[in-house]
Specification:
Elements: E1 2-3, H1 7-11, H2 13-21, H3 27-34, H4 42-61, H5 73-80, H6 89-111, H7 117-120, H8 131-139, H9 152-181, E2 191-193, E3 196-202, E4 211-216, E5 222-227, H10 228-259, H11 263-289, E6 295-297, E7 302-307, H12 310-319, E8 326-330, E9 334-340, H13 347-361, E10 374-376, E11 380-384, H14 397-411, E12 416-420, H15 429-445, E13 449-453, H16 457-464, E14 468-477, E15 482-489, H17 497-503, H18 508-517, H19 520-602, H20 607-623, E16 647-650, E17 656-663, E18 666-671, E19 674-679, E20 683-686, H21 693-709, E21 713-715, H22 721-737, E22 742-746, H23 753-762, E23 768-773, E24 783-788
Parallel strand pairs: 1-11, 6-10, 9-13, 9-14, 11-12, 12-13, 21-22
Antiparallel strand pairs: 2-3, 3-5, 4-5, 7-8, 7-10, 14-15, 16-17, 16-20, 17-18, 18-19, 22-24, 23-24
Helix pairs in contact: 2-3, 3-11, 4-11, 5-11, 6-8, 6-11, 8-10, 9-10, 15-16, 19-20, 22-23
Amino acid sequence: MIYPKNSLEKLGFEEIKNNIKKYCISEMGIEMVDKIRFMNNAEQIIKFLNQTHEFKTILQSDEALPISSFYDIKKLSDKAKIEGTFLTEEELFQIYNSLQTAFAVISYFEEREGQYPNLEALFEHLPIEKSILREIERVIDAKGKIKNNASRLLADIIDAISKAEQDARKKIDQIYKNAQNNNWVADGSLTVRDGRICIPILAENKRKLKGFVHDESASGQTVYIEPEEVFNLNNLVRDLEFEKRREIIRILTELTDKLRPFVPILYSYHNFLTKLDYVRAKALFAIELDAEMPVITNDIGLKLLNARHPLLMLSGKQTGKTVVPLNMHLDPKTRILLVSGPNAGGKSVAMKTVGLLQIMVQSGLLIPASEESEFCILKQVFADIGDDQSIESDLSTYSAHLSKMKYFTENANGKTLILIDEFGTGTDPQFGGPIAEAVLEIINKKKALGVITTHYSNLKVFANHTEGLENASMIFDNVNLQPLYMLEMGKPGSSYAFEIAQKIGLSQHLIDLAKSKIDVQQRKVDTLLVDLERDKKELYDQKRYIDRERRKIDELLLENQKLKNYYEENRKQLLKEAKLEAQQIIKGANKLVENTIAEIKTNKADKDKTQTLRANLNTELKKHDIKPEPPKKSDKSNVEEIVKGSWVRLKDSGNIAQILDISKDNLIIAFGELRSVVKKNRVEVVTSKEVPKEIKRASGASHTQSAVDFVSEIDVRGMRGEEALAKIESLLDRAVMFSMGSFKIIHGKGDGILRKLIRTYLKKYSEVDRLEDEHADRGGDGITYVYLK
């Protein structure tokens, strides 16, 4: 219940409804917005809030609902249910389009079953009767016109009309041409008079043409004659048109009769589409306000977090002004908030914001406040806002206020929200203050919730020591003498009357004179409030600074935590990448060392060239932060580490060979041009000095010459299998020894036997990475590419 009735208008609720109407796409939706009312059924309120919230979610983050337009099919259904009536082509087309929209929307939600349960409830148990569409489609085309073949008779009539019109046109063209040849025709061409095609004839020649005169020119020199022969044909067309109209009415009547049993279902579709338009409009308005769905609680009280007045937000968007958010709460311990402070400081706006948002929530509307805000469901909202003096009732402003106070004190209870603006004004403060205090005491005893604005000091003192009441003030910058429009609970505020008077330019003498006339105690109270306000302002500034610093610290901590989490999540990957990078560097360094050794051997250990190569090697290694180690001197036992390039002696035969590559416990060794694979435990390292010079020369020359002469292609076509494999094995050994990446085997296609034999053989070697066919244009599977690891 809202008391008095004009409170909704004074709080701005009617303007809220007008803004919602702008988003409706149907007259039915607008009518439903007009019916928005203050409810106190918690279940219904929550359902309406959830519907709006779900529709808002669809508009912001889902595919668009297939809603374009729909019509008032209730009115059309009312017409259709009367026996003997028929719906016009346009009316049937409106029903058709509306049902198309309804079915498309239902299909949309069925595809998202369970995602929007409160909106799905709008069409729960609603049958999908597509036979209505089929009946209309049989008669009405896609443009909303009756089909020529809606019946056999209609098709025949239309054909007859077309033929008669053609005959009439041919006849009148023939007569017109003949009249032109005889110079009977006045200036101009064929024209239409009274729906008939006529020939403009000079008045002196009108007797020469048989027909009916339909009109004459203003001067009387031209008459418009319909030839007699054409007249009969046009009459035939007219008669056929009448027949066509009768047949169309018969078809439409028949179709309406078929739709009449579906009228109750059409009513249901109408209600569904109307509610859909209504909820959509509320959701669009919520998006404009950045509105959220608050928490509905069973506990008596309310909590507003970052709440803004909706109408101020709308005007602020147009003017570019920011609305200062409101934070406050009411609960069983703090039921009534007594707000004081300077004029134009925002007291009334804060009070109206609380009242308007409470009414919006209990009307099923989302509000511009944090979703953590809390509202209880109240039974009554009482408001005393503005001047309600009545000449008719012979009530003064103060009498009007008192009549409301009487109603408030008699009817308030624990589920009532009371809003009073400028409590106690309108009469002598000496008497108005005590009356206001008495009213406040009764309202408090009735456990009502309330937000009351006042300037009366006695009310501030009363609220300070009375349980259930709480002082609050609008923060004022007493340095710059301007309001900050922020509500602070816990302390009363000064009116800053003298400070504001001084700012607007009243003389100091006048201000001092005024100060001398006020009560000493009152002056002390007001001075104390000003000092408190100053202290609050300093504390507020410090709090803002601390909050900013805390936010910076929180951001740094959050960033640090994110980096820590990223490291923890990606530690294995980072280590893996680091290992791979290290392997690549080592592989490159090894290759560089091998190439350097090869060049030294090629240059036969020339001293200057060797120094140059070593310098280049050191430079390249430093690029990768690898420090070249000085050559290790052999110890007394002359034992050296087994590495690529080392010389070893086979324990069982005593032969000396050089290590070409190492694979786990296996060594690939070379005796001149011969290579073999032996286990590590079958050899012992020998120093370079122990190797005979002729073996070194043979090995160096062989390796150098082999690297120079290495050919990465072999042709084994026509060879026997064993011979081909021997050749390929030799080429593979040389490719591995000189770190060649790949080589090519030409074996031909044939029956594929040789190709299969070669590939099976090569797959046994761990040094082989993969085998691939040559490009189809260059030999295809007659050539195999061998890629080494």
